[in-house]
Amino acid sequence: MIKIGCNYLSFRHMDLASFVQTAYDLRLDVIDLHRSAFTSTEPEYLRGIKMMCLRLGLPIGYLGVSNRS
Questions:
Q1: Environment class of residue 56 by beta-carbon count within 10 Å: exposed (0-12), middle (13-18) or buried (19+)?
Q2: Structural domain includes residue 15
Q3: Residue 18 located in a structural domain
Q4: What are φ and ψ of residue 6, in 5° steps?
């Protein structure tokens, strides 16, 4: 079965929680994130994003990191 997903960079004008919700509303199967999506590296924030994805049934396909700021 083919899975359909979206990369955060396609919606980088919105915050991460809104992107996750939009992906859910569009009934996507997976989301791909980029380091620039995260406003914090605090464990509580990251855990909250992870739990939101789990509650909505959206696996994180990958987390992209570039060597540019």
A1: middle
A2: yes
A3: yes
A4: -145, 145
Q: How far is CA 8 from CA 1, 43, 64, in A?
A: 23, 20, 10
Q: What is the pLDDT of residues 5-61, one digit of tens each?
A: 999 999 999 999 999 999 999 999 999 999 999 999 999 999 999 999 999 999 999
Structurally, the chain folds into a number of domains equal to 1
Per the domain annotation, does 69 fall within a domain? no
